[in-house]
Design brief:
- With about 400 residues, the chain is an alpha+beta fold.
Length: about 400
């Protein structure tokens, strides 16, 4: 890492990691005060690198390196500045920091690019505030529709109201030239690179997701006076469903399924649960496999709960199809990774990323960086400075000689 030392990336990530809406811990949500402070810091780094800074109405901060040809296309690189609750310091922020440092390298080299370059710090990917993901990148891509704008946060503010009321701190960006492609560096959030003792890998696809809420309704009753054979226990039914999820997902080759929340209505130690709600998250890079799994699973829920005398209602608030990364960009990025470390693992991402939103309008690629123990969405999340430095070097070369469509 010649012109942007590894310690600078580490310092920047520590600085961003100290900016939070909550204390202790790290939490930054869409258009929150902490996000505003983080944007000011990132904008300062962008300006010091030699980029011109803009901000759109959704709070995305854009550092732009203008091409001499005004009508040239644009190559975008970046990630998100928002976090989950009690987050780690690397998820999202690493992609922003490495993008800015790569742009700084290009500018310091004096190289003239035949395209505009934009380093983007997206305002929302995690969806914590409004429970809907990719708000920043969907706005940037022009794909944030009227339906999404009506969703509201815990205080009753809608996405549309939040955007209308937001006053950008920097000039509004010029209209987009056509995007030639998008690349995102991100911690792996998994254990493969660490297991293979490699710093970097390239993503081939991002798994599709189906998120569901399952509602089971039985009959509440006295825990001491209702015989076991006469019960309509919604919680026992939920337990059967949850074990079925684990069993069926465990019999697949790549699909993963998770029940992350469960709520017992009016729960008490001496009351048979009459109503239970639980969440389900199903992911696979194969859309057909994921959809078939959900269909068959939900049908089995119905059959088994009918035997228990329970009613089943299933809501599906979020579906995201799998995203295939561009073969052209994968090959170019992989060749650079091989140049740096000898070989390049090709990985499927089980987590969602801003690249999903950008894939609707352009070719996308992702560079994964090794993270300790595969840990993410956790305060102990960590990527080593030498690995981040390697990512900056690869991004610098990739953005300097972007493979044109």
């Amino acid at each position: 890492m010649s012109t942007a030392p590894a310690h600078k990336a580490a310092e920047w990530l520590e600085e961003l990691g100290a900016i939070s809406d909550d204390a202790p811990g790290l939490t930054r949500t869409f258009l929150s005060p902490a996000l505003a402070r983080a944007k000011v810091l990132v904008a300062q780094w962008m300006q010091e690198a030699g980029l011109t800074v803009f901000e759109d109405k959704a709070g995305n901060v854009i550092g732009r390196l203008e091409c001499e040809r005004a009508i040239a296309g644009t190559v975008a690189c970046g990630s998100h500045l928002d976090t989950v609750r009690n987050a780690g310091k690397f998820d999202g922020a690493l992609g922003v920091v490495t993008g800015v440092l790569a742009a700084a390298n290009i500018i310091q080299s004096g190289r003239r690019l035949p395209y505009h370059l934009e380093i983007v710090a997206f305002s929302d990917e995690e969806g914590v505030r409004f429970q809907t993901t990719y708000l920043g990148s969907r706005y940037y891509a022009g794909r944030l529709g009227p339906t999404e704008l009506t969703a509201s946060d815990a205080q009753g503010t809608t996405i549309g109201e939040a955007i209308r009321n937001h006053s950008p701190m920097f000039p509004v960006p010029p209209p987009h030239a056509h995007l030639l492609g998008y690349v995102e560096a991100h911690i792996e959030q998994g254990p493969v690179l660490e297991k293979e003792n490699l710093a970097l890998g390239v993503v081939t696809a991002i798994a599709g997701q189906t998120r569901a809420r399952v509602f089971l309704t039985g009959k509440a009753g006295h825990a001491g006076t209702t015989p076991m054979t006469l019960r309509q226990d919604a919680l026992a039914g939920a337990a059967e469903c949850i074990l079925l999820v684990e069993q069926r997902a465990g019999n697949t080759s790549s699909l993963v399924a998770t029940v992350g929340e469960i709520r017992v209505e009016s729960g008490a130690s001496n009351v048979i649960p009459g109503s239970v709600e639980f969440t389900l998250d199903v992911r696979d890079a194969d859309n057909r496999a994921r959809l078939d799994f959900c269909k068959n699973l939900f049908e089995e829920f119905e059959t088994r709960m009918k035997r228990r005398g329970l009613e089943v209602r299933i809501e599906i608030p979020f579906v995201s199809p799998a995203t295939q990364c561009s073969t052209r960009l994968i090959q170019s990025l992989a060749s650079l990774v091989k140049k740096h470390q000898g070989r390049c693992p090709e990985l499927v991402s089980g987590a969602g990323h801003d690249a999903v939103a950008l894939s609707n309008i352009t070719d996308v690629a992702m560079l994964f960086v090794r993270c300790r123990d595969g840990l993410s969405h956790h305060p102990d999340e960590f990527a080593a400075p030498p690995d981040i430095a390697a990512a900056v070097d690869v991004l610098t070369e990739f953005l300097s000689e972007f493979p044109m469509p």
